Amino acid sequence: MMIEVLKSKLHCVHVTEANLNYMGSITIDEDLMDGVNLIAGEKVAIVDNNNGERFETYVIKGERGSGCICLNGAAARKVQVGDVVIIMSYALMDFEEAKTFKPKVAFPDADNRIVK
């Protein structure tokens, strides 16, 4: 049996930009992506802690070290700059593997930097 489990989570990052005129997706600082094993094109679920919105999109690499969290296209209407969001991705895996799998979770600071 395969089940879907949390693979990656950026907990409480701040939206730095919302670009309605881009075709879609979320642009994420490449350092943040690396910190939780996200890749370009990966599907992510986003939860806005400020307004309760929940939606899905895909990841685009942002400038490394920029702290960028930019919602693009239609998703830009679901957030405001400064909102706190949680970004999650999931993976399908065998039930037994899932019992011991440990997701990559990061709690970035107010500047969207992963503090080690």
Q: What would you note in describing this structure?
A:
The protein is mostly beta strands and 116 residues long. The protein contains two helices and eight strands; from the N terminus they run βββαββββαβ. The protein has an eight-stranded mixed beta sheet with strand order 2-6-3-5-4-7-1-8. A hairpin with a 5-residue loop joins strand 4 and strand 5 (54-62). The chain is globular.
Can you tag this structure with a few keywords?
116 residues, mainly beta
Spell the H/E element sequence.
EEEHEEEEHE
Biggest sheet record: 8 strands, mixed
Into which percent range does the helicity of residues fall?
10-25%
**Rounded Rg:** 14 Å
Number of helices, where a helix is a run of at least 4 consecutive DSSP H or I residues: 2
Widest sheet, order of strands = 2-6-3-5-4-7-1-8
Oligomer: single chain
- Which shape, going by the Cα principal axes? globular
Runs with pLDDT <50, length 5+? none
Mean pLDDT: 97
| Strands, count | 8
Helix/strand class: mainly beta
C-alpha end-to-end distance: 36 Å
**Beta-strand proportion:** over 45%
